[in-house]
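#structure-requests
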Amino acid sequence: MENIDTIKNETEYCLNCVNKPCSSTCPLNNNTAGFINLVKQEKYKEAYELLCETTVLQSVCGRICPHTKQCQKGCIRGIKGKSVSIGDIEAFIGDMALNNNWKIPKTNNSKNNKKIAIIGGGPAGLTCGAFLARQGYQVTIYEKHNVLGGILSHGIPEFRLEKQTVEKTIKSIIDLGIEVKTNIELVSSKKESGITLEELEKQYDVIFLSFGANISSKMHIEGEDLKGVYGGNELLENGKHPDYKGKQVAVIGGGNVAMDAARTIKRLGAKSVKVIYRRAEEQMPAEKKEIVDAKQEGIEFLFQTNILKIFGNEKVEQIECIKTKLVQKEGETRLVPVNIENSNYLLDVNYVIMAVGSTPDTALTLNLNLKTDSKGKIVVNENNQTSNEKIFAGGDLAGEKSTVAWAARSGRNASENIIKFLENK
């Protein structure tokens, strides 16, 4: 974490713009100029409390958000030079709050008798629970793992986000009076071990589904079912890796999951790790810093390259690659990769990691008696409500953008809509 002198220099560098463009490009619409101005005046606790009006994940978002594509994208300083390091300042204040045990302020000290169950303790569920508990509602979070955090605890590697930071952040949220029930999974039938929506509906006034979409998408190419082909999401979530020592690994994809998987695998002793991405580097959705760090750690990148087939006799041995060109197609907002004929070549690999996107657990979502889309995601209206008015959903489970900040925003929106629903009832 940056030292206080560096933080002070960054706050002085901020122009404290009247129209706050950095706030409009932040998914949570944090009052960025306002909290930076308070830090500049050394009013640290006031800065934290101002941030608490919109977020409860300061230390987390300050570290892992793609700032150059979000808040810092709107920074006026960035037009002609370097943007203000908004993330570093936010993490500094978040850490100061955690280290000094500053409480998340309650907005209503009276207790409400309405009970809400939240299924999934990731960024969306934690944020929704926090904003409901601040208003006095009785919140219970159900989590399938033994600790809360979702992707924060079971996805993002330790070298990018320290577990201690996550644990302290979660504790500050739970200290609002939230009940936690771990090792309990949502199931679609009473025959399975877990809890059903029907059982929850009998106990709670509202249910919020936020268990994410963490099943790795398939490319539907030949050889994808060979031994040695893994999903990046599952590897990062469960931490169960094969022995990579001396092996050659190909990671397919260009997002942060691909970067996290590639860097983790390299650190676990792989001889070589190649990230294969079908578009150009500037089109990669991963944060630029993560790409730079991956390169510095010896990870190779094959841009404008697609894979057509995975070869092997039971185990992965080779992949067939093909070069792509980028063309503009009608109705598309960005250039589309098209395979270049006769540019095929073979690459020797021992493992292939798929990180080309993710979907919900359709075995569950399609059997919850809720409306879903073609990808198995829960369909919600503008108020986060599913086809059952008592059940709300958010985060990437409901098709929101897959970043921590957007998931948190979805959880905050859901809390507001749940309160409106309960008040109207």
